[in-house]
Design brief:
Length: 213
């Protein structure tokens, strides 16, 4: 892992079952400060034994939980998958991959000091920009996702729609679709973002969506 020392006491880091910290099984593994429990600093490990962020003490873990709750509120309020909200936060913050587990104290405090401002900065990206680029894409996207199907398609299989790469790549550049790999498989889909759905007046009823991203 990149962080070889605890950021609080500079001790080495150990990797062991989370049961030793949580006192119950079923929580995988953790990267933990060697000074634990005197130094209460740790972070969860992924299935491939990589840290899911940076080590955090109790205060920072609570701050991160509050940020996660805020992201869930944005997702629920806008009926937008959390994955899409996380992508937009990365865009706002200028990072390729945004993870709550990477936030440090100053960053969580900045977000939580003005949660409405933070939410607004993300939510404004859910509305498509009205410009020549997006308006040109409105009709072809509406045809691809709605009119060419017996019911609206929330996502299009990549292999099946390779003939429309020019339109779909341009839509992705404008934040109207995402190229997504379905979890647990190698299948790739072109998935409408909330901005894309708004642009083409897509029916967001989940029962009418072919693929839930």
């Amino acid at each position: 892992m990149n962080e070889l020392k605890c950021p609080y006491c500079f001790s080495d880091i150990e990797y062991f079952p989370a049961e030793r910290v949580y006192k119950r099984a079923g929580y995988g593994f953790l990267f933990v400060c060697k000074g634990y429990p005197a130094c209460d600093s740790y972070v969860s490990a992924s299935d491939d034994a990589k840290p899911m962020g940076t080590l955090a003490n109790r205060y920072l873990r609570e701050q991160r939980k509050r940020v996660v709750h805020l992201i869930s509120e944005i997702s629920d309020r806008n009926k937008t998958p959390r994955q899409e909200v996380m992508r937009l936060i990365g865009k706002v913050r200028g990072v390729k991959l945004f993870r709550v587990g990477d936030l440090r104290e100053p960053q969580t405090e900045e977000i939580l000091a003005n949660p409405n401002v933070f939410a607004a900065s993300v939510e404004k990206l859910l509305v498509p920009a009205v410009n020549q680029e997006t308006l040109v894409l409105k009709l072809p996207l509406r045809y691809l996702y709605i009119e060419s199907h017996t019911r609206p398609a929330g996502a299009l299989p990549y292999q099946q729609y390779r003939g429309h790469l020019k339109v779909l790549n341009e839509a992705a550049k404008n934040g109207l679709v995402n190229k997504v790999t379905k979890r647990g498989s190698r299948q790739i889909f072109w998935v409408l973002t909330q901005a894309g759905k708004t642009l083409i007046d897509y029916d967001t009823n989940p029962h009418r969506t072919l693929y839930n991203a």
